[in-house]
Amino acid sequence: MKDACKRKEEPEIVIIGASILDVLAYPADEEVFRTGSSPAEDIRLSVGGDALNEATVLARLGMKVLLETVIGSGKAGKFILDHCRDCGILLPADCVREDFSTGINVVLVSRDGSRHFLTNPHGSLRRLTLQDIHMPFPQRAKIVCFASIFVFPEIGPKELEVIFRTAKEQGKTVCADMTKRKKNETVEDLAGALKYVDYLIPNDEEAMLLAGEESVEAAAARLREAGAGTVVIKCGARGCYLDSAAGKCWVPAEKNVKCVDTTGAGDSFAAGFLYALSRGRSLRECAEYGNRCGAKAVSVAGATDWVEKIAYSI
């Protein structure tokens, strides 16, 4: 199976993080626990995980992507390998592991688009380590993005600093997303790593929790004080907030968007932002394109199904 993961050409962008499968049920609520059975309009199997979501969107938009990840050797892992092959996503030759299974999440999506997850803590979702990431990074890649800070127990602030410093020493643009902190980490804990990050792309809840602030604006300012070059905070229906050396502003969300499923919306935003960034667009244009991709994502069920159905390039 490892032969399926060989690099065949140099990528434009490197995405680092988790690759799993999602089993989505829509709509789903607590009624099923009372009745024992409940009808759903849609139940589907979809690729998931922050890094795989971002890589999928970027690849479908025409970028050559290298995905630094680990997956298991079973059927779920083969599903991901086949998906990456179909999308043209490059994978390291040693990405498939025999000692654990590929992560599978059950995602229960309510009618308002909110989600509840059942996760397997023993699968690949949280198994990535520093030793799994191939450095130095490919020469042609201009951007290196770590898809989610705080996902992997063995990649903490010190390991992040190594990854980000290596990328910066190679002249790459360094980007990072995050999930909620897991061990009460603070901005001070991440300062050594953040000083190498050109674009930090958390959502509002994640940013405020890490920064210990009660507003998006204050959280962004705190993250920039800690060293991040530009902070882009995803705020759902409010759009996004930008704080950079050039100034601060809100970029409103797309209008008249029907929210079906928010799964992967933040990942689609990040991918859209990175795509526009790679094409030399302004910061505001990158944010606007990220908003458009996020809006497309919430309009259908599944993290990346929107990009399979809708040809949408900048």
First and last CA, distance: 36 Å
Strand percentage lies at 15-25%
Strand order of the largest sheet: 4-1-9-10-11-12-13-14
- Unreliable stretches: 1-7
| E-strand count | 14
The tally of helices reads 10
Assign an overall shape: globular
- Output the helix-strand order: EEHEHEEHEEEEHEHEHHEEEHHH
Average pLDDT, all residues:
91
The assigned structural class equals: alpha/beta
Using only C-alpha atoms, the radius of gyration works out to 18 Å
Sheet with the most strands? 8 strands, mixed
3D architecture notes:
With 314 residues, the chain is α/β, with parallel strands linked by helices. The chain is built from 10 helices and 14 strands. It has an 8-stranded mixed β-sheet, sandwiched between helices. Strand 9, helix 4 and strand 10 form a beta-alpha-beta unit. Helix 2 packs across helix 8 and helix 6 crosses helix 7. The two termini are 36 Å apart. The N terminus is likely disordered.
Task: Summarize the model shown.
The chain is an alpha/beta fold and 314 residues long. It has 10 helices and 14 strands. An 8-stranded mixed sheet has the order 4-1-9-10-11-12-13-14, sandwiched between helices. Strands 3-2-7-8 form a 4-stranded mixed sheet. It has a two-stranded parallel ribbon with strand order 5-6.
